[in-house]
Amino acid sequence: MAVLKNLIKKVVSSIGRKHPELIIRIRYWLRFHKKLNLDNPQTLNEKIQYLSLRTDTSEWTRLSDKYQVRDYVRECGLEQILNTLYGVWENVDAIDFGPLPDSFVLKTTHGSGDAMIVRDKSSADIEQIRKRLNATLHETYGLSEGNLHYSRIKPRVVIEELLDNDEESAKYSTSLIDYKIWCFNGKASYIWTCTDRTHSGTKVMTYDTDWNAHPEYSVFNSHYMRDGLIPRPMNLPGMLEVAEKLAAPFPVVRVDLYNIAGRIVFGEMTFTSLGGLMDFYTDRFLEMTGNMINLN
Asked: Measured between alpha carbons, how far is 270 from 275 in angstroms, rounded to an integer?
């Protein structure tokens, strides 16, 4: 079965490299049971797909790279929000774990959802970590989804400071609270929060910029579960200002930030959330936010 799965993935990836629009159209049909409208895109998903297939996404590649994006954050005058970087490596075997602190987080520059948390280096299985990282480094992410901007990222490993919730935030989430800020034509409009995140799912809620909760915008399921209300983060206006500075050149982008007792920390920039096939939002939200995006 594993051999068959790998074969299918290779075939789909090969098609995705040469015909990304075909892959996206098939996946869109399978997800929503309707044709993807690229001639006159209206919804958030449709406009993301239009931008992905009909425009130059070279800057998406640079800013989706978890190492190169740090230069862009500096270019925007926001170096102070960058997390502490311990190093970047092309070769997993070249990583010297000795000088690293007791706790840290490892992730690849081109992957998604592959972060590995080490809380106690002395008890960590270093060889298993190298093995997992090596496997990820040899994957070309994005081809099977038709998201070619990911496939152009140079695979490397970055190791950064491990962040933890502040005391107040820890009352509401067992994992670091992730504030994902949707920006449309440079304007921060909605914040999607993720709490209690595990490999099997996360609790989510959508807030507007005045921190009013909008559960009616979400389609909750076993992976994206309805969250309770969490407090307005400290320095929310500062978070929105940061997001808008980073998002200024783009019709649509999601800027992911953390907030540790008012300290704003950069997470990442996402241009194709769930591959532009978001089914965890209602049709109303997808249409409303699609109308906020000016493709001209």
From this structure: 10
Domain boundaries, the chain: 1-32+84-162, 37-83+165-296
CA 217-250-157 angle, 5° bins: 90
- The residue assigned the tokens 């706790």 is 103
Residues 147, 148, 151: CA angle, nearest 5 degrees:
110
Instruction: Tell me the C-alpha to C-alpha distance, in Å, between residue 194 and each of 15, 26, 142, 181, 272.
Output: 33, 29, 23, 11, 17
The mean pLDDT of 27-44, rounded to a whole number, is 97
d(CA 266, CA 44): 24
State how far the alpha carbon of 16 is from the alpha carbons of 108, 142, 204, in Å. 21, 8, 31
Q: Which CATH architecture has domain 37-83+165-296?
A: 2-Layer Sandwich (3.30)
Amino acid at 111: G
> pLDDT digit string (tens) for 46-91?
999 999 999 999 999 999 999 999 999 999 999 999 999 999 999 9
For the entire predicted model, the pTM comes to 0.94
